[in-house]
Each structure stands twice: as structure tokens, then as C-alpha cells.
Amino acid sequence: MAVISVGGCQFLVKGGEKLKANRLDKKAGELFEVEDKLSGGKIKLKVLANEKGPKTRVLKFKAKKGYKRVIGSRPHYTILEVVNSRGKK
Predict the structure, then answer these.
(1) Residue 58, SS3 per DSSP
(2) Is the C or the N end of the chain the one with fewer CB within 10 Å?
């Protein structure tokens, strides 16, 4: 088990585990390494896909004034797979 920081968030991961992180500037199939926060070792991650999350809608409304605005956004995610989780130096 290892604690890694990816996309501004920390995750507790094991080998073979898949996780959804904030969008990274990496292409599908790309391998990269991050540092284990506990032991200082290197953890290899593989990018599986870049995708959009579900749409979130926000409604602004003022009673009796005829004012209504609907705003929506879709967060971007990167799906990652832990290739190895050996958190040793």
C-alpha cells in the first residue's frame, strides 16, 4: 500500500487498482512515476483514459422577479491504473 499525490489529490493505492483523478496532461497508454508519500519510493501509473464526468447543473432564481439562470459544467477526469505499488527506495 502506498499514498500518492496525483492531480492535487492524495490516494491510498495498491497494485492493479484503478483510480479517477483530476485531468492530467497525459495521453492514454502513457506510463509515468510518482513518489510514495510514506516511504519515498517510486510508484508507476498507467493512463487508461481521459473522460468527462456527469453534468452538474446549478439554478439561480429570484422569486417574483422573472430571473432564472441555469449553469452547467462537466468535470474532466483521468482514469489511472497502478502498475506496481512497491513503495521502497
Answers:
(1) strand
(2) C
Q: Which helix (H) or strand (E) holds 20?
A: strand 18-22
pLDDT digits (tens, 9 = 90+) for 26-65: 999 999 999 999 988 999 999 999 999 999 999 999 999 9
**CA–CA gap between residue 26 and residue 14 (Å, rounded):** 21
Tens digit of each residue's pLDDT (9 = 90 or more) over 9-19: 999 999 899 99
Cβ partners under 8 Å of residue 2, min gap 6: 12, 13, 14, 36, 37, 38, 39, 41, 43, 85, 87
* Dist CA 40 CA 35 (whole Å): 6
For 83: left if phi > 0, alpha if psi spans -120 to 50, otherwise beta; the answer is alpha
The whole model's pTM is what?
A: 0.78
Q: CA gyration radius for the chain?
A: 18
